[in-house]
Each structure stands twice: as structure tokens, then as C-alpha cells.
Request: fold
Amino acid sequence: MKIVLVAAVALIDADGRVLLAQRPEGKSMAGLWEFPGGKVEADETPEAALIRELHEELGIDTQESCLAPLTFASHAYESFHLLMPLYACRRWQGTAHGRENQALEWVRPNRLREYPMPPADLPLIPVLRDWL
Ligand SMILES: Nc1nc2c([nH]c(=O)n2[C@H]2C[C@H](O)[C@@H](COP(=O)(O)OP(=O)(O)OP(=O)(O)O)O2)c(=O)[nH]1
Reply:
């Protein structure tokens, strides 16, 4: 089974809320809520991939020193195995907006369960709730 490395981040605002982004129509798992991030390209570190994706998807800028490893997801999808490190980030420049027309929501940790997420993400929710 092919292992796909995806880097994701829990952006945490001053009120302790976490940013979720809705997967757009036309993508796999459309409509589900996910942590910002994306596939790590060849010759790219997970941190560099996140910095790139945050800029492209949300129009915000951060740096490696602001990305703290938090936990990871390891999940068998039908056609690949997802390995997804989840970082926490509290410092960035700019205001997040969906540059690819995806809906965004700042969500309190105890409400994360109300947002339908990809199956790989479900074990991450209690970790975030305990940690925040
Ligand atoms: N960014 C992100 N991706 C996630 C999460 N949970 C989860 O299963 N994924 C999966 C969905 C995708 O298969 C993959 C991320 O790919 P991507 O966002 O870079 O690219 P994509 O949607 O165009 O990928 P795809 O349509 O080919 O599946 O990881 C999550 O919380 N955040």
C-alpha cells in the first residue's frame, strides 16, 4: 500500500479556537472539515509543505519555529495509507481567508465533534481537546 505523507496544522487563535477548512466540491471527501495542509512534495520537508500550503490556501505566513509537532494520524484509506503529522501553530502573519473558496470556521475544541471530518481525523479530536 502506498504511504502518502500529508502535513496538517491546528491553527489556534487567541481565544483557543481551531481553524477548520471545508473540502471543496470536486475533491475527494468534499464537504468534510479538515485541518489546513496538504501533500508533502518530493524534496520538501513537512514544515516547508505547511508553510507553502498556508500561504497558498489561506493567505497567511508562518515560519518553521512557529510549528510545534502535536500528534499524527495514520489511517488506511481504500487506495492509500495516510500518514499525517499534525502541528500546532499560534503565530502567523495575515488574516486567514479561503483563497480557494473553501469555507473556514474557527471552532472551540469542545465543538470539533460537530463538524464532519475525514475518518483519519477522528482520533485527533480528543488529543486536541485534552491539549488545548
Ligand atoms: N489537509 C488535510 N488533508 C487531510 C486531512 N485528513 C485527511 O484524511 N486528509 C487527506 C485528504 C487528501 O486525501 C489528503 C490531502 O491531499 P490534498 O488536500 O493535498 O490534495 P487533494 O485534496 O487534491 O487530494 P486528493 O483529492 O487527491 O485526495 O489528505 C486533514 O485534516 N487535512
Observations:
- The chain has one domain: 3-131.
